[in-house]
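Q: How do we represent a protein-ligand complex in a form that can be generated token by token?
A: Start from the inputs.
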Amino acid sequence: MTHHDRLLIIDFGSQVTQLIARRLRELNVYCEIHPYNRVDDAFLTAFAPKAIIFSGGPASVFAEGAPMPPASAFTAAVPILGICYGQQVMMHCLGGKVERGHGTAEFGRAYVTPTALTHPILSGWFPPEDGPLAREQVWMSHGDHVSEIAPGFSVYGTSPNAPFAITADPSRHFYAVQFHPEVHHTPKGAQLYENFVRLAGFKGDWTMGAYREEAIAKIRQQVGDAKVICGLSGGVDSSVAAVLIHEAIGDQLTCVFVDHGLLRLGEAEQVVTMFRDTYNIPLIHADESALFLGALEGVSDPEVKRKTIGRLFIDVFQKHAHEVGGATFLAQGTLYPDVIESVSFSGGPSVTIKSHHNVGGLPEKMGLKLVEPLRELFKDEVRALGRELGLPEPFVKRHPFPGPGLAIRCPGEITTEKLEILRRADAVYIDQIRKHGLYDEIWQAFAAILPMKTVGVMGDGRTYDYALALRAVTSVDGMTADYYPFTHDFLGETATRIIQEVPGINRVFYDCTSKPPGTIELE
Ligand code: XMP
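Then emit the structure tokens for the protein with xanthosine-5'-monophosphate bound:
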């Protein structure tokens, strides 16, 4: 994508660096996040950014080996915006002063008031009609603070604990703020980014139409006349990748849809129909439910389940890939959050919470090269690209669905009886959510069948049936999540419908756990 204006975000390890990229992408600005320790002078020259943003970060400029930008960032004659630690590092490098604590730490909401100076970087901030009462809410999170600004800088906004909340050196186009404009709690933060990219001369040419054209050209160039296989899960990412690649190379692409018998009600038919009938994409529908369910019989340990499914998935995929005859590429719907190399200050390897099922081991084992046309995109951008490619709206907006499917929504042993009950109950639940117009507000919703039976009474008879858990969460990326606050009316109505319409369930629970401490799926 070299002919787009490019903005470089140097990551100093803030928890919210990804949000900076999102704010910029919303402004149709192409940007990439790179960790500070990978950005040296040579990298900067090769990347040739039109502007640079220094993210926040947990370090202190006083610490030994404190993260620093390369010196050439300041001599590249491009605009720079420093955020929080990014501001401190700018002042530190350019001749200002940073101090530790002394009661000036600020965490959370603060209000910034203007000084006598104005600058277009603050266009839309401090509306004149607010007069002397003008102030803007911002979100602060800092221990250290700037105590003396660098030569050339002036102050444009102050807060009680951050006298240098907004600073700028207009002649060099260096801007630096103590707060985080990328977060929701700085309501006019997006405006500040817009002002910055305008001042930096960005044209806002990062559109999905342009992306589509360029991605197609890139795929053709990479693949030539070779054959490509693509594992389809029916989720948005792999579907969009498949449709895009098909547009680029037509019948050189074959998709493999592995039905492991752990899909939702009607899911296999929906996916197969859409790909065969709407897109006319060659598709192998591998019905391997007997194989998977056979191997999972009697297995109740969540990790054993996941590993069994992962292993079989690779076997099946390999078997069917041979039918395609000489494929040398494997297409994957890898997204940008998966490839961002984030700065880790915690050291050591992170704990494995769950073995996520993916096709990571596959390309090497099969000697395949990867085609990953969505590597630069966030999830919502993939959805926008899906729309651009004409994928049906309900498909584009589908909630994520995990690779191991219903296996991880059926804690304990998996049986065909339980799966059948779960499919029907889940369909009623999702139907309720759609009928109440809540589907698009919720990031992910599903039912899980619990490994216990309880006593109930229906009509005049005793029942002894399974209990069902309902889960619905809001989230941005699945890394953290909040449970969705349904009304009691909704929950009551849904429980009644499920018990009436799905034999085998006589009790329904709603899961009010956020993530952390819970995870989204039950296993
Ligand atoms: P957890 O349960 O880890 O889930 O909080 C976070 C998100 O990831 C999905 N998920 C998976 N997706 N393969 C996938 O493709 C997996 O093995 C897998 N496990 C969980 C889950 O549905 C949620 O959206």
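The chain has 15 helices and 20 strands. Residues 346-350 have pLDDT under 50 and may be disordered.
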